[in-house]
Amino acid sequence: xxxxHKVLLARLVLILGSVALLELLCRTGVINPLTLLPPSKMAExxxxxxxxxxxxxxxxxxxxxxxxxxxxxxxxxxAAGALLHAIPRLRRALDPLLASYYALPFFVFYPVLVAFFGxxxxxxxxxxxxxxxxxxxxSTLNGLDRVPPVLLKVARIHRLGRLRTLxxxxxxxxxxxxxxxxxxxxxxxxxxxxxxxxxxSGKGLGYQIAYAYNSFDNRTMYGLMLFVLLVAAIGYGVYxxxxxxxxNSYFVRTSGRELVIYQGRPAGFLWIDPRAVDRTGVxxxxxxxxxxxxxxxxVEEPSLAAARRFVSNLVAEQRTVTHSGxxxxxSSTTTTTxSSTTTPNSTKGT
Length: 350
What we know:
Structural class: alpha+beta
Shape: flat
CATH architecture of the domain at 53-215: Orthogonal Bundle
Helix content: 55-70%
Number of helices: 12
Largest sheet: 4 strands, antiparallel
């Protein structure tokens, strides 16, 4: 079992063990049922509330608000990050503000936002946008800072315009940081809007949870809370599955004249680029020539150990061929003909 599988198994055991312990404490009366319902009762209440349809409009309201705030924060955050990266003086002036930005309590501006936008979803969208946009901006700056200068130099050598350089060079190189920013932006938008609905709104999942709490309706309250937790868990699960799919793939590819083992997919996958995990020290001269072309594109293996065995087998095969005298045919650049070969006797006069 690999280290990643052990970590995943440990997480599952911890989560399931915590749920089972909580169920036991609630069923045995150690925890008062008026204070906390057993997880099984929460699940039952969640199914009943969702199936009844009484919160369908609130679910749509919350998710649509989060989606609008998230999309706006991603677009504006990337644009603002690119602008700050292009103007170093402006970036230096705003750095202290960005560093202390999340110390600002966004909810104190709700009355001002209501005065501007009215009693609708716009104040909550503005709060979600404000909470998420700066995370996207900072991640964009980090991604642009980490674009290797050699890639920009190659783009200039090939005379790529600004747009093609951005699309073909900058965005792929900055993709890991940009995706980290989108993950943070989604989390901040979701948290801030749910929290805003608790205290500032008359609709949405947060409002329904707060209303159930004030009405002493524990079943509805815990059922909706479990639903929110499941939505967050599903989002994290999708992210984790993508990383698991990528991290459990290895391939061998040439880097210059050296064979390097990478973790990931040869062409990358979504926002995750392959990363070198083992520079083998084996050169293309030490492997059979018929494998060199394939190695340039990448040969996939199921594990790191299998990739190392593949490299060792290539080296062993080339040694066997060399020792048996079946050396590969020389290339056209090194071939000589007998007529062009000079011998010591040919220089002597007759």
